[in-house]
Write a structure and sequence with these properties.
The chain contains 23 helices and 10 strands. By secondary structure, the chain is of the alpha/beta class.
Length: 515
């Protein structure tokens, strides 16, 4: 009996030791996997975005063509009467599509709505009235890396009283659009951004001097004359643009690597006052790229349409694990619903990004048709406005409740009058082939950031994932209403959020290296 009890105690002790060892082994394995996850899936360093490639006509490289490439000149963007007459004739010749069994949007664009809008465009739409809103602020062009870059310049409107004007801090703001939008998206917010707004908790006011450029190949900006121009090439061009337009306030801001900035007339460099940048869609990639490329001169970035990867240690494995245990990956049910159930997320992504595959592989196959047919161009862009604005269970005519007919057609007019649907689609082809793209969207952003999450955007990043990529978030705004075209659809909320972010960012500014 004694021996039996003794051996039993030994077995129990060994079992307890084994249990402890197993727990320690599992713990060590967990720590190792956790560390390995961080090693494998940690955010990479930002890519080099300081390229100096020439994108214009090769003849312009000749010194005889360099009279003053840094000049900023006024640009008349008004359409000719001949162009409007030719458009009307095209609209009159429109051949309506037989919609077959379709009753709404299940096969793509609502053909009945296209027919209605084409009729309105042909018989009632007045471009001159819409054009007046677009040209309420002056338009300019300047040549950067061989391309004529168009931009709207909306100057801050200061009070006439000198003392009152002294209470206003003027800040430079860069606004960058996306596809299938244009600078037309900003015509409703520009009049409010240039007016002084009082900062919360301060007796100071802020008003913006706004630059809203057209991406090369969009609107009135020249298209690149050779292949390879991805959206990341526009990042250093924007850094140069803001310095060129405001040499007295930004000309002294050093660019990474000592890249020279071409300023008109040998303008002497000045102190670096810094600037803000705001963007969605392509603009989201551009302003986030500026935060990586030109961080020393940026006071902050304000972003809608957030793009990024799941953070470590899970990284992309979050999608796999979340398919089975979604609560483990995203405990917050509101944020979890953006990604999971994974089958719904995958199906929605597949349905809403077909355009990206086409434009990223065969852009001209689409563009030939849309460049010649205003009705086709309208139908293609209209479907994106609907899909990225109206919930899947929303009203059939929801897009015309979020935007007026003049707004929907006005944006299409920018593409039609400038003939840029082809070059705008080509940007997808070039960008998806840029080896820096994946590194860029995974690299972190450390400048002060304000992030907008709208319920109907095409891409929605969970808050914890966004906070990993944007490491200095001062403001996270979950809008109750709105979609991809935020500035055009909910301009009041957009403006209020931007000023609120700036109020939080202002005390944190300290100028970086200067020339």
């Amino acid at each position: 009996l004694f021996l039996h009890d003794w051996t039993g105690q030994i077995r129990s002790a060994r079992l307890a030791e084994l249990t402890i060892m197993m727990k320690l082994l599992v713990l060590a394995l967990g720590v190792a996997l956790y560390g390995l996850g961080y090693l494998l899936f940690a955010a990479p360093p930002a890519p080099d975005l300081s390229g100096r490639a020439w994108w214009g006509d090769e003849l312009a490289r000749d010194a005889s063509h360099h009279a003053d490439l840094a000049a900023v000149e006024p640009l008349d963007v008004r359409a000719s009467d001949e162009a409007l007459t030719a458009l009307r004739q095209k609209l009159k010749a429109t051949r309506s599509l037989d919609a077959g069994p379709a009753k709404g949007w299940e096969y793509g664009v609502d053909v009945t709505l296209v027919d209605e809008l084409v009729a309105y465009w042909r018989d009632e739409f007045e471009w001159r009235e819409v054009e007046a809103k677009l040209t309420a602020f002056p338009h300019f062009t300047t040549r950067i890396r061989g391309l004529g870059v168009h931009f709207i310049h909306a100057a801050a409107q200061l009070p006439a009283d000198a003392a009152a004007a002294g209470q206003v801090d003027r800040r430079v703001l860069l606004l960058v659009h996306g596809w299938p939008g244009s600078v037309f998206e900003f015509h409703k917010v520009l009049p409010h951004l240039v007016v002084p707004h009082r900062q919360v908790g301060s007796d100071r006011l802020v008003a913006f001097d706004v630059i809203a450029p057209s991406i090369p190949g969009y609107g009135w900006s020249e298209a690149p004359r050779r292949g390879g121009f991805s959206i990341l090439e526009f990042v250093p061009m924007c850094a140069e643009l803001v310095r060129r337009v405001f040499p007295d306030r930004l000309g002294g801001c050093a660019l990474p690597g000592g890249t020279p900035v071409e300023l008109a007339g040998g303008t002497p460099p000045q102190p670096c006052e810094g600037y803000y940048a705001q963007g969605g869609d392509w603009g989201s990639l551009v302003v986030s790229g500026l935060a990586q490329h030109d961080a020393a001169a940026l006071r902050g970035v304000h972003v809608n349409m957030l793009v990024g990867d799941p953070p470590p240690p899970l990284g992309p494995l979050a999608y796999v694990i979340g398919a089975v245990l979604p609560w483990l990956v995203l405990p917050d049910p509101v944020q979890r619903a953006k990604i999971f159930p994974i089958d719904r997320f995958a199906l929605t992504t597949l349905q809403e990004t077909g355009y990206m595959h086409l434009q990223g592989t065969k852009p001209h196959s689409l563009a030939v048709a849309f460049n010649d047919s205003p009705a086709g161009l309208l139908g293609y862009i209209l479907e994106k406005f609907h899909g990225w604005t109206v919930p899947s269970d929303g009203p059939t005519r929801g897009v015309t409740e979020s935007f007026t007919k003049d707004e929907l057609i006005g944006n299409v007019m920018v593409y039609w009058l400038t003939g840029t649907i082809g070059s705008s689609c080509r940007l997808y082809y070039e960008t998806l082939r840029d080896p820096r793209l994946l590194t860029h969207v995974r690299a972190q952003v450390s400048v002060p950031s304000g992030l907008i999450d709208v319920p109907q955007d095409i891409f929605r990043l969970p808050k914890t994932w966004a906070m990993y990529r944007y490491t200095n978030v001062l403001q996270w705004s979950a809008f109750e209403q709105g979609g991809h075209f935020t500035a055009l659809e909910v301009p009041d909320a957009f403006v209020a959020d931007l000023f609120s972010f700036v109020a939080a960012a202002e005390p944190r500014w300290s100028p970086g290296p200067q020339k």
